[in-house]
Amino acid sequence: MQESPAFDHRFIILLHIIDGKHSYEDAIIRVEDFQEKFGSRIAVLGGVDINILGGDDPASVRRRVRELLELCGNRGRYAIGSGNSIPSYIPLENYLTMIDEAHATGVLGPGGRGAVRLYSLETRVPVVMSTLSKALGSLGGFVTGSRKFVEYLMNTSRHFIFDTSLLDIPRIKDTIKEGVIIIANSPIPINTSEFPDNVKVYIVDATGICIKREFMHSSGPILNIPMLGAFGKVTGYYDLEIMEKVLKKEFGEKKLEKNMSVATDAYESVKEV
What is the pTM of this model? Predict the structure, then answer.
């Protein structure tokens, strides 16, 4: 493929100010060609052309995704995907095919260990993210990586608020193992009779606390802060003094009092069922 000097010049400049490039069109430059030139210096993200997603059949989409995973994935610094957004005219079956092939947990590779294992990329892929809601028949997802990376995620990512209605789904209930600790946003006790031995369940009325303290936004109660207060009390990982320092750094002096009020209420009221 012959390229114009203007194209090369433009991207040589960009390489000094960006860490990665997302979204490619095959008519301009195919993602594998871009990666061959610049993949050693920046991350390459995407590459499944919208025209393929919109105009080809699921089998063609699957072939293209596998091709990119094998070629670009083997070079490293690559994440599969498509454009910045998926237009509404894209056939749903094609979009789901791309997602299915990209995840591939339980489907591809020896023992269903995914595309990374299929293409023997374990030593070159530092982070694997996949879903539990497809071949594994559950809900949610997972991220794996080095201990340092996992600890970074645990300390910087937004926390998931457990929905007690999920406990009524058999496949969710069946995944709860011995020794698990559950902290549920609930004003009333939860039935634990069907849980394995040594499962500890704690409840805190985080919603009620937010309503009482008027700790709300347009879509409802802001549950993460009271749940973090309850989590600190149950696990002992941190106390209110540490929470106050973190919240002050995160939100500033102006919002500290209200954040600490809901955190304290949850810290002091969480209880074991």
Answer: 0.45
